[in-house]
Specification:
Layout (H helix, E strand, L loop, with lengths): L3 H20 L4 H12 L10 H8 L1 H13 L2 H6 L1 H25 L4 H12 L3 H10 L6 H23 L5 H4 L7 H32 L3 H20 L5 H12 L5 H26 L3 H5 L1 H25 L6 H8 L5 H12 L5 H33 L17 E4 L3 H12 L4 E5 L2 H8 L6 E2 L5 H6 L7 E4 L4 H14 L4 E6 L2 H9 L4 E4 L2 H14 L4 H23 L5 H27 L4 H7 L2
Parallel strand pairs: 1-2, 1-4, 2-3, 4-5, 5-6
Length: about 600
């Protein structure tokens, strides 16, 4: 068990290290690793029970795999199919062969060499994506290619996690009691239970919990889903991360996807940070003084091979300008799953402890050096390797949804139906589970979730969206969302529904400038029909309503400036009514006795 004292040490290390490394424009993952090195057995020795902590912290990887599974929608994979399954498979296959060959020449047997080659071929998804976002390169061609490669690597880890226990010394020993066929049978049975049981039970159970409206209950149900699936798969000797991934895939196309991602994100972030701190603690720094030449050769060797191989693939896939070299310098570092694979391989006796320690320390150092290599390339080498100005890139194959519609009631549905008819991509959110169930029956794509939660907005893609349609009926909830949008997503253009004038004033406080009061437009349409029925021409009726609307919108802005002074509001309302009567009277008189242009000018009209 991890003690409260150890938890306090971890949190202190994270609070100090992560902001420092972000200030240095390095990844927070690098900060976690450095913090682990500092407080571990080879540093200040504040924490020494590394094995127990690492075992507990691996649950962060389990949650990460669940969220990766949630992101793997069939439509997303299909849009990126060429990059993911073409370039991604080529990158993993080529690097695995090259690095495995180097490991074999270094003295490892064939199967352990393949494990090492595959583990070193992987890159860190959170590290690389964070670096690309910070540099504004995520939409560049090399950024898109890096994303596709990382996605394939995440997929490729799954069969490795499933097969690795079957390659253990006990399984490979013909005299052992365990049968590989029995293990494969257990694997097939576990997968069948997870897939079919998940389809039949998961969504109905989550719907029942969601209908209670208790956020904590839904969060508990999400964690229970992950843990139960992970434990079930682990019972047949497979990785818990594999089970969590399967649970995520099963729910990737459900209405709960964004809510589940938002609920598990804080736990994933904390436990993943703890995992990286534990990895830093477990790094055997004695190798720095005991085997410095071997450590440097392994670290620099696989970094060099990855940069050259990935850059060559970039050239073969016709990346323009220096995009191929940028791709190579984006993906050289090792990844978090290498720690999992090498630790698991050591437990299964595929690698000895000394080799596993050497590889883990090499990957740790590579994750620190990786962002520095990209910075070095940007600052110095690109001027020599590619002095030509890089051309603008084609639009991304996989675009994020341009519009987010919050609340899928009567108001939001009209907006969404027109957007869908025009084939404009949008994400719809609604916090009413009954409403979600109802509208999904008619083929509408809507997700269950409370748009007043920041993490849910991030999961729904508010960082990349252009338009936010705020159609929430509840006034307080609507205002909370408007405040979140102003504070965290100022780039979004917000189009809001207001129930009344006071609701409109509260939304305007948070920068909402385009809003429609709930029954305002429909009442104007009805008034136009009433005037026509009373004998006015269509042109006169429309002109009258248009004049009223201009005056009312001008009055709304004036009253917003004095919304907190009731006396001034009452006086302004009376004055506004008088002005409106004067406008209509002047309009009526002008129609009754039209003046010549000269007379109109003389009269001041």
């Amino acid at each position: 068990m991890i003690s409260l004292e150890q938890i306090a040490i971890f949190l202190t290390a994270a609070v100090v290290a992560v902001p420092l490394f972000r200030w240095l424009r390095l990844s927070s993952i690098v900060g976690y690793l450095a913090a682990g090195l500092a407080i571990g057995p080879w540093g200040l020795r504040l924490v020494t029970d590394v094995d127990n902590i690492l075992h507990t912290a691996e649950f962060g990887i389990v949650l990460l795999m669940f969220i990766i599974g949630l992101e793997l929608q069939p439509t997303r994979l299909w849009a990126l199919r060429r990059t993911v399954f073409g370039l991604g498979s080529a990158e993993v296959g080529l690097l695995t062969l090259l690095l495995a060959g180097a490991a074999y020449l270094g003295g490892l047997p064939p199967i352990p060499a393949l494990v090492v080659g595959f583990g070193l071929s992987l890159s860190s998804t959170p590290l690389v994506l964070q670096v690309l976002v910070e540099r504004g390169q995520i939409k560049a061609q090399h950024g898109r290619s890096a994303f596709g490669i990382l996605l394939f690597q995440d997929l490729a880890v799954l069969p490795a996690l499933a097969v690795l226990p079957l390659l253990s010394a006990g399984s490979l020993d013909s005299g052992g009691g365990g049968s590989p066929w029995l293990a494969l049978g257990k694997l097939a049975a576990a997968l069948a239970v997870v897939v079919f049981g998940g389809r039949l039970l998961l969504r109905p159970l989550l719907r029942m919990v969601a209908k209670t409206g208790v956020t904590e209950a839904f969060t508990a149900a999400a964690l229970l889903t992950i843990i139960a699936t992970a434990l079930l798969v682990n019972q047949v000797g497979l990785s818990m991360a594999l089970g969590a991934f399967l649970a995520g895939v099963l729910l990737a196309d459900s209405e709960f996807r964004h809510e589940l991602e938002a609920d598990t994100e804080p736990f994933k972030g904390l436990l993943l940070g703890l995992f990286f701190i534990a990895v830093g603690m477990s790094a055997n720094l004695g190798l720095v003084t005991g085997r410095p030449g071997t450590l440097a050769a392994v670290t620099l060797g696989f970094l060099f091979i990855k940069v050259l191989a990935v850059s060559a693939l970039g050239k073969l896939t016709r990346h323009p300008g220096d995009s191929a070299f940028r791709l190579g310098f984006t993906l050289p570092a090792g990844g978090e799953f290498a720690f999992v694979l090498f630790t698991l391989a050591a437990r299964q006796r595929l690698l000895d402890a000394a080799t596993a320690d050497l590889l883990i320390l090499a990957v740790t150092l590579s994750m620190i050096l990786g962002p520095l290599l990209l910075a070095f390339y940007d600052a110095f080498l690109q001027a020599f390797l590619s002095p030509d100005e890089e051309r603008s890139f084609d639009p991304m194959e996989e675009r994020e949804n341009r519009v987010i519609v919050a609340s899928f009631g009567r108001f939001g549905q009209i907006v969404a139906r027109i957007l869908r008819a025009r084939r404009i991509r949008f994400t719809a959110l609604d916090a009413n589970q009954t409403q979600v169930d109802f509208v999904r029956r008619f083929g509408n794509k809507v997700f269950y979730g409370d748009a007043a939660r920041l993490e849910l907005l991030r999961a729904a893609g508010a960082d990349q969206a252009e338009i936010f349609v705020l159609a929430i009926d509840d006034v307080d909830a609507s205002v909370r969302v408007a405040e979140l949008l102003r504070d965290h997503f100022p780039h979004l253009k917000v189009f809001a529904r207001a129930r009344n004038r006071q609701h409109a004033f509260r939304l305007m406080e948070f920068g909402v400038r385009y809003l429609i009061r709930e029954t305002y437009v429909s009442s104007l349409e009805l008034t136009t029909a009433v005037l026509e029925a009373l004998g006015e021409t269509r042109t006169d009726a429309v002109s009258t309503v248009r004049l009223f609307r201009r005056h009312d919108e001008k009055t709304l802005l004036a009253q917003y400036a004095m919304k907190d002074d009731e006396a001034k509001l009452i006086a302004n309302a009376r004055e506004s009514a008088r002005q409106l009567e004067q406008l209509f009277e002047a309009d009526r008189q002008e129609e009754a006795s039209p003046l010549e242009p000269a007379e109109a000018a003389a009269s001041g009209r």
